[in-house]
């Protein structure tokens, strides 16, 4: 082969690498977050990894596992139908084949219940409950006199971390992960006046203390902590409200937590530009849309612009984008592949948001 033809041939072979390098520069993290599939949906989800995530150059997959795993350290915490180690290894293998970093999530601190159902940790260890005096209703409604959204465990209970860290370690080991997502969003019950350990304590210090405790535990095995960012934002001053931000003063914890915690900053109804706040506080941040495609496009453009127009010190704190899905994996796959539709959504669905956001990322990467 003569030299000019060789150069052209080499260039054509290298195009995917150049595209990959440009994407890595534009958005180092290109993520997807969803509930871990039920055993019956594992093979279908692996097909989605191979045929949908990988071609779009998704490089990070967060699976919200919680109690959907057959824990050996605490079998009492398993869901009645749960993933086996073999099934998890299949998911891990699919991700490794496609150069996708897989990160498990277990909700820590908050989200220990939903509606009128107590989740497994507090069901099996009721002594960990921050608000045992708040009884779960037969029929849940919001608002309610108890201010019950989701239960929390008490971060100062002397044995709660013995149990929690057992399953965190087991989950990280089976996933072979270098990071762990602890959730920690929408924590309304914290520092309750009736808690014998937490009453009267500063809620920001309690929240920051739990972040630090989890972070320090993970750091012993060189694992990085990821959390949702809403509790670190001032809901009143910003007008973001009590769901996307804090009304109980935990937002001051933004100045108290370790700077190596990865913040997943979610805003679903507006493209709020709060990544700037996190970055200016020295924290790495990822923007997380859900079901509004037009806002996901704006958020993606913002993240690229933030990186391009920042100082060298700030640039790498803007880490990228992550599509979030808040239905089960099975429901999402049904929606994605057209086996179920929502005629009232007007295109505002997680599957359409995913496609639209990654189309924008692909265009920006050209």
Automatic annotation (TrEMBL):
Q: Which UniProt keywords apply?
A: Hydrolase
Q: Does the keyword Iron-sulfur apply?
A: no
Question: Which Gene3D superfamilies does the record match to this protein?
Answer: Glycosidases
- GO process annotations (BP): carbohydrate metabolic process; glycosaminoglycan metabolic process
List the catalysed reactions: Hydrolysis of terminal non-reducing N-acetyl-D-hexosamine residues in N-acetyl-beta-D-hexosaminides
Gene Ontology cellular component?
A: membrane
Instruction: One Pfam family, please name it.
Output: Glyco_hydro_20
Full protein name? beta-N-acetylhexosaminidase
Instruction: List the source organism.
Output: Xanthocytophaga agilis
